[in-house]
């Protein structure tokens, strides 16, 4: 069965550079979530989209922005990267918003040097 | 706001039963969820409770008491592959976001 696809899987950037992460949800899933997970930490909710509209916002820095496109894929744009942005970024999708059963992608590991 | 508490680490023996507790405070409640995460991998959904009581799913069961702000995940017939982090997660005030606890790292020994 198709899963959540994230790209790139690994990304290395310098401080102050920009990065874009992409997420392709499971077909027919209408809700996308972004999480950031630092080493040894729990996943921190960043932002979510339902039917291409932002549905909730968590601890996402102002330097980050995200959107969901007409084909339901989502992109997380990160600018003015800082060392502390180094983390695993997970995208998850679900069918509807009432469920807590999220399907996670394998994550994009961002390293900021 | 929401607050979730879990033990940091637990150790158990292969074939045994282990109970991982989770306590929470929240102003709204839309469900309590359990996820398993192996190191460096994505979390995978295990179980959820919306109503009080026990939900059983094979070797895994989850219990919820809303009045006590308490849940537990019960793992039976432990296997070595069950060594992982177990994350308690809450849909609280907003039904759009799932907030994770810091997770319990379970080590299963032979």
Annotate the secondary structure layout.
The complex is a heterodimer of chains A (113) and B (110).
Chain A: E1 5-7, E2 10-13, E3 19-24, E4 31-37, E5 44-50, E6 53-57, E7 64-68, E8 74-78, E9 87-94, E10 103-104, E11 108-112
Parallel strand pairs in A: 2-11
Antiparallel strand pairs in A: 1-3, 3-8, 4-5, 4-9, 5-6, 7-8, 9-10, 9-11
Chain B: E1 2-5, E2 9-13, E3 18-26, E4 32-37, E5 44-49, E6 53-57, E7 60-65, E8 70-75, E9 84-90, E10 99-100, E11 104-109
Compose a concise summary of this entry:
The complex is a heterodimer of chains A (113) and B (110). With 113 residues, chain A is mostly beta strands. Helix content of chain A is 0%, strand content 50%.
Q: Care to describe what's here?
A:
The complex is a heterodimer of chains A (113) and B (110). Chain A starts with a strand and ends with a strand. In chain A, a hairpin with a 5-residue loop joins strand 7 and strand 8. Chain A has strands at 5-7, 10-13, 19-24, 31-37, 44-50, 53-57, 64-68, 74-78, 87-94, 103-104, 108-112. Chain A is mostly beta strands and 113 residues long. In chain A, the strands form two sheets. In chain A, strands 2, 4, 5, 6, 9, 10 and 11 form a seven-stranded mixed beta sheet that branches. Chain A has a four-stranded antiparallel beta sheet with strand order 1-3-8-7, with no helix packed on it. Helices cover 0% and strands 50% of the residues of chain A. Chain B is mainly β. In chain B, 0% of the residues lie in helices and 56% in strands. Chain B has strands spanning 2-5, 9-13, 18-26, 32-37, 44-49, 53-57, 60-65, 70-75, 84-90, 99-100, 104-109. In chain B, the strands form two sheets. In chain B, strands 2, 4, 5, 9, 10 and 11 form a six-stranded mixed beta sheet that branches. A five-stranded antiparallel beta sheet of chain B has the order 1-3-8-7-6, with no helix packed on it. The model of chain B has no long low-confidence stretch (mean pLDDT 93).
């Amino acid at each position: 069965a198709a899963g959540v696809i994230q790209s790139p899987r690994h990304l290395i950037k310098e401080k102050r550079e920009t990065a874009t992460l992409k997420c392709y949800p499971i077909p027919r899933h209408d809700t996308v979530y972004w999480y950031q997970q630092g080493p040894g930490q729990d996943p921190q909710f960043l932002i979510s989209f339902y039917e291409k509209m932002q549905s909730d916002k968590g601890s996402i820095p102002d330097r980050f922005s995200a959107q969901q496109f007409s084909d339901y894929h989502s992109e997380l744009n990160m600018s003015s990267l800082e060392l502390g942005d180094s983390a695993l970024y997970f995208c998850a999708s679900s069918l509807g918003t009432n469920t807590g059963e999220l399907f996670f992608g394998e994550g994009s590991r961002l390293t900021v040097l | 706001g929401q607050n979730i508490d879990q033990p940091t680490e637990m150790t158990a023996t292969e074939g045994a039963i282990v109970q991982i507790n989770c306590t929470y405070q929240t102003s709204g409640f839309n469900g309590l969820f359990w996820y398993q995460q192996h190191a460096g991998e994505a979390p995978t959904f295990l179980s959820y409770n919306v109503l009080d009581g026990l939900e059983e799913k094979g070797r895994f069961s989850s219990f919820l008491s809303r009045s006590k702000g308490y849940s537990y995940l019960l793992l039976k017939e432990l296997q070595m592959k069950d060594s992982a982090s177990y994350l308690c997660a809450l849909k609280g005030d907003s039904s759009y976001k799932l907030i994770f606890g810091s997770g319990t790292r379970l080590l299963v020994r032979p």
